[in-house]
Amino acid sequence: MIRRLLAVLDPEGAARLRRMLVGLVLCAVLQGVAFALLVPLLRELLDGGGAGNALPWWGALAVVGAGYAVAHWDSTLCGYHVGAGLARTLHHRIGDHVASLPLGWFTAERSGRLTQLTAKGVIDVMGVPAHLLRPIVTAFVTPLVTVALMFFFDWRLALAALVGLPLAALAHRITGRVVARNDHAHDAASAEAGGRVIEFARAQPVLRAFSRSGEGHRALDAALVAHRATGRRLLLTAVPGFAAFVMSLQLAFTVVLLAGTVLALDGSVGAPELIALLVLAARFVEPLVVAADLAASVRIAGNSLDRVEALLATETLPEPGAPAVPADPQDTSVELDGVVFGYDPKTPVLDGFSLRVPPRTLTALVGPSGSGKTTVTRLLARFFDATQGRVLVCGTDVREWTTEQLMSRISLVFQDVYLFDATIAENIRMARPDADEEEFHRAARLAGADEIAARLPDGWDSRVGEGGAALSGGERQRVSIARALLKDAPVVLLDEATAALDPENEHVVHSALTALAEDRTLLVIAHRLQTIAAADRIAFLDEGRVVECGTHEELLALGGRYARFWEERSRARGWSLASRSG
Question: Does the structure show a pLDDT above 70 at 148?
Answer without folding.
Answer: yes
